[in-house]
Design a protein that fits this description.
The protein has two domains: about 80 residues; about 70 residues, Alpha-Beta Plaits. About 55% of the residues lie in helices and about 15% in strands. The chain contains six helices and four strands; from the N terminus they run αααβαββαβα. The longest helix has 27 residues.
């Protein structure tokens, strides 16, 4: 596991440390994201790989304490890994969102449009600060949240909308999966929650 960088050009060792840090910090960001969503099967595996990579990177830094380029590569890899991990997590669009829309206007056409696109919608009447309101509740896959919001904006651009993360759901109406990783993940990890 230890590589003697003494025979390598300084830049080559620094590049290796940089990319090792990018990889382990990106994996750490994904691991934390999976933990927060209750993905108990995938998080430990990611953590194992993350720690192997981190041990490699830190061991090379410790073996070459006099090389400032390695310090810069280690820190730069960390910063880049945070950015890369967040971007990867954003692209995977894992999880679900609770979208709550409140408006004084009639929501019949918006509810119909949402249901026509396969979204589960619960609509109730409520009392707001300035009178009666319509409240629409939906739990949607994160990958579908933007399309859902486009429909809301098209029908009621002035509506109050709040979006929050949902840790777990049981039953409900959800669109067919468009995220290939969710299907692949359940095939590899059969206990992975839907």
């Amino acid at each position: 596991m230890f590589i003697d960088f003494g025979t390598w050009p300084v830049w080559a060792g620094a590049v290796l440390i940089f990319f090792a840090r990018v990889a382990d910090v990106s994996l750490g960001t994904l691991r934390i994201s999976f933990i927060s969503r209750g993905e108990k099967n995938l998080a430990p595996l990611i953590g194992f790989v993350e720690m192997l990579i981190w041990l490699f990177a830190i061991s090379q830094l410790v073996l070459n304490l006099t090389n400032v380029a390695y310090y810069v590569a280690y820190a730069g890899g960390f910063a880049t890994g945070v950015f890369a991990g967040l971007r990867i997590e954003e692209r995977l669009a894992l999880g679900r969102r609770m979208i709550r829309t409140i408006t004084e206007e009639d929501t019949g056409s918006m509810v119909s449009a949402l249901r026509a696109c396969g979204f589960g919608v619960t609509s109730v009447r409520g009392a707001g600060g300035s009178g009666d309101v319509n409240v629409i509740f939906s739990v949607v896959k994160r990958v579908d949240a933007e399309q859902y919001m486009d429909i809301v904006e098209a029908h009621h651009p002035e509506a109050f909308t709040s979006i929050e993360e949902v840790r777990a759901v049981h039953q409900g109406v959800f669109r067919a999966s468009r995220n290939p990783l969710s299907t692949a993940g359940r095939a590899v990890f059969p206990l992975w929650r839907k």
